[in-house]
Specification:
about 25% helix; 5 strands; alpha+beta; two-stranded antiparallel ribbon; three-stranded antiparallel beta sheet; about 80 residues
Length: about 80
């Protein structure tokens, strides 16, 4: 474990590898939409006190490595 983070009574290091796939795996993540999706994902991570560690935007899906505090559910 590289770095443990803490809440009031816990130490944690929760990392999740997430894959987001558009319906029917359509190749729609190009150009301006690609930049928009990247910004939205980073903004959502900040709102939920999470950190976006790594990510890859491909034309038909998105891979993400996100660190999420245990007080939030993955869903």
């Amino acid at each position: 474990m590289d770095e443990l983070q803490d809440l009031s009574h816990t130490m944690w290091d929760c990392r999740y590898r997430l894959v987001w796939i558009p319906k029917h795996r359509k190749k729609t993540l190009f150009g301006d939409l690609r930049k928009l999706v990247r910004g939205i994902i980073r903004e959502l991570a900040v709102q939920k006190e999470s950190s976006f560690l790594e990510g890859h935007l491909l034309p038909d899906h998105v891979h993400m490595l996100v660190s999420i505090p245990p007080k939030y559910s993955l869903a």
